[in-house]
Design a protein that fits this description.
29% of the residues lie in helices and 29% in strands. The protein is built from five helices and 14 strands. The chain has an eight-stranded mixed sheet, with helices on one face. β13 and β14 form a beta hairpin. The two termini are 18 Å apart.
Length: 214
């Protein structure tokens, strides 16, 4: 599978899908459980035919679809091709895909001692290492990964923060909603890769996109 840059993914014209850093995501709202199940079955058949398989989660009111690179995070050309097929299947079923309603969350621990603390969190959570990155992850892919953010031993820091990955089109509405809720933008120096926001008490988190990461 050939992996694509963020710009190549954006230029592919996949309406209704969000590139959230490690893969493609979408959600189809369904009027009932049976409709969702039928969509899952249709996607499953197409995935078997293509010998390429997304992650599917069936809920009572929606179906979540994700192409997540486990060994190498990113979006490949086979992901895009099957995503187009899934879009067609959803359209044929009278459903609309909505990438703007999905997001991805990582937990991040600010620490100057990653080698010392990472094994503890891997053991506590029964997680596994992600090759090539200071991160541990749920082997089943259901729970948020934990990222170990390098920081100086003497610098003041909030030890835990959230990394919230969203589609670039959702950044401005999300920031405006945070400002209206009493928050503030602390740092936009690294935008559009990420923005640092804080609540009224100063607790910080990051709003992240795929942009400027290739």
């Amino acid at each position: 599978m050939r992996f694509l840059t963020g710009q190549q993914v954006a230029a592919s014209g996949l309406d209704g899908w969000a590139h959230l850093g490690n893969g493609l995501y979408t959600r189809a709202a369904t009027p009932d459980f049976a409709t969702g199940l039928a969509l899952v079955n249709a996607i499953g058949a197409a995935a078997e035919q293509a010998n390429h398989h997304p992650e599917l989660t069936l809920h009572a009111t929606h179906v979540d679809v994700a192409f997540v690179g486990r060994d190498r995070p990113g979006v490949g050309d086979r992901d895009v091709a099957l995503a187009r097929t899934i879009t067609d299947l959803a359209t044929a079923a009278g459903l609309t895909l909505d990438g703007g309603s999905v997001s991805r969350i990582n937990l991040a621990l600010d620490t100057p001692a990653t080698p010392d603390v990472l094994p503890f969190w891997r053991s506590l959570l029964a997680y596994e290492d992600r090759p090539g990155a200071p991160m541990v992850r749920d082997p089943a892919g259901r729970l948020p990964s934990v990222w170990f953010q390098p920081s100086g031993a003497d610098e003041p820091r909030q030890r835990w923060h959230l990394d919230v990955w969203v589609d670039p089109a959702q950044v401005e509405p999300r920031i405006q909603a945070c400002l209206a809720a009493g928050g503030r933008v602390v740092d936009d120096e690294h935008a559009p890769a990420f923005w640092v926001l804080a609540d009224a008490e100063g607790n910080r988190s990051c709003l992240a996109t795929w942009q400027d990461r290739d």
